[in-house]
């Protein structure tokens, strides 16, 4: 009888560990991670909305969004994104004082399985006529 009880306890423990390992947590999946605006004129402001989905099985919480310079301004959801739900990350790039090829990288910090994601705005800033 003791062996039977011990065997049942071990079976339950293995099952519980397996159930925990099947959870993939929050997963941030973007429709696109980069947008190229091509040539823009110095002083122009361009913006893009990056749409993402939480394809995981726990709520996605964005803790911070960091940019490479003050020329880029992000706006992101402050509330958790439920599994299966979509949300938006809006990014605005101000080309004032910039010239030539620009690649504004935005880093998104979250509780996702990949804790740091990156999206970027690419442009080629031309001088005003």
TrEMBL record:
Keywords: Signal
Signal sequence, renumbered to the chain: 1-19
InterPro entries tied to this protein: DUF1573 (IPR011467), Ig-like_fold (IPR013783)
Pfam family, one: DUF1573
Protein's recorded name: DUF1573 domain-containing protein
Organism: Mongoliitalea lutea
């Amino acid at each position: 009888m003791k062996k039977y009880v011990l065997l049942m306890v071990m079976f339950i423990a293995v099952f519980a560990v397996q159930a925990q390992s099947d959870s993939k947590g929050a997963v941030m999946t973007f429709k696109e991670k980069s947008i190229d605006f091509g040539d823009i004129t110095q002083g122009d402001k361009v913006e893009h909305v990056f749409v993402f989905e939480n394809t995981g099985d726990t709520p996605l919480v964005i803790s911070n969004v960091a940019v490479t310079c003050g020329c880029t301004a992000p706006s992101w959801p402050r509330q958790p994104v439920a599994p299966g739900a979509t949300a938006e990350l809006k990014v605005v790039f101000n080309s004032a004082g910039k010239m030539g090829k620009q690649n504004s990288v935005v880093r998104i910090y979250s509780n996702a399985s990949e804790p740091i994601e990156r999206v970027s705005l690419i442009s080629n800033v031309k001088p005003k006529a």
